[in-house]
Amino acid sequence: MRKMTLVGGMFVFVCAFLLAGASTSCAKAEPNKSKVEKEAPLFDGWEKLDIASRTAVKTRAPDESLKIIFKTDIPVKKKEKKLLKKAGVVVGAVINQIVTGSIRAGDMAGLAKLGFVVRIELAQKLGLK
Questions:
Q1: Number of domains, the chain
Q2: How do the residues of the chain divide into helix, strand and coil, expressed in percent and rounded to 5?
Q3: What is the pLDDT of residues 96-106, one digit of tens each?
Q4: What gap in Å lies between CA 14 and CA 106, rounded to an integer?
């Protein structure tokens, strides 16, 4: 008799477990809502900025200087350097399509709007290992 009660109890437990799983799987069948919403761009070319650059533009004073590195889709010559200067970039090193420099946080939109600029990243200090 005791064995029968134990088996019956296990049967009830397994049924309850399966029913609970079925009800949660039904709940999961609803469309998945993303917890991370896409942030609204602050200006044209916002998608060209990496996360660190976006954060700097949002949190730093507009006149604060940021060290950057960016990539272009064409080699940077005199004409492009003039456009970069007009956008507020103080050009450092130019290696074909890779450019280093500094820019005020408030001028980042002007750089991002340039058609030949593909990607903008906040510069990072690298250590020797």
A1: 1
A2: 45, 20, 35
A3: 999 999 999 99
A4: 62
CA distance 30 to 10: 31
Does the residue 3 lie in any domain? no
Residue 34 lies inside a defined structural domain of this protein = no
Say which residue the tokens 């029968």 belong to: 4
Q: What pTM was estimated for this model as a whole?
A: 0.67
pLDDT in tens, 34-81: 554 567 778 889 999 999 999 999 999 999 999 999 999 999 999 999
Structural domain includes residue 29: no
Domain that holds residue 113: 46-122
3-class secondary structure, 91: strand
Residue 105 lies in a domain: yes
Q: Show Cβ contacts of residue 2 under 8 Å, excluding neighbours closer than 6 positions.
A: none
